[in-house]
Design goal:
Number of helices: 0
Strand order of the largest sheet: 2-3-4-9-6-7
Distance between the termini: 28 Å
Radius of gyration: 13 Å
Oligomer: single chain
Shape: globular
Structural class: mainly beta
């Protein structure tokens, strides 16, 4: 849980790991399912709010990785992180490079 009630994610899969599923992650009063898939040039996160109110969310790559672009639900965003309010289902793509 981040400052001000925000969910902050910085996915970093172990070496050799290509995917990770997290079910019923609790962030304040909200339960979230995550499906993270790691590819050579991008990282895709499918996120679904399963229960509770919408939640402010910030997602970024780990500090040691360079970011070249971000999309949330196929909408390009600027900056170093995806900042949005999660409600329902979302697909976040973090492009490396």
């Amino acid at each position: 849980d981040g400052a001000g009630g925000r969910l902050e994610l910085r996915p970093d899969l172990p070496d050799g790991g290509k995917s990770l599923r997290v079910r019923r992650l609790r962030a304040h009063r909200t339960l979230i399912d995550l499906d993270i898939r790691d590819r050579a040039e991008w990282l895709t996160i499918r996120m679904a709010v399963m229960f509770g109110p919408p939640i402010a969310t910030a997602i970024r790559l780990p500090e040691y990785e360079e970011l070249s672009g971000i999309t949330v639900d196929e909408i390009p965003l600027g900056g170093e992180q995806a900042i949005f309010t999660a409600s329902g289902e979302h697909e976040i793509v973090l492009f490396r490079g």
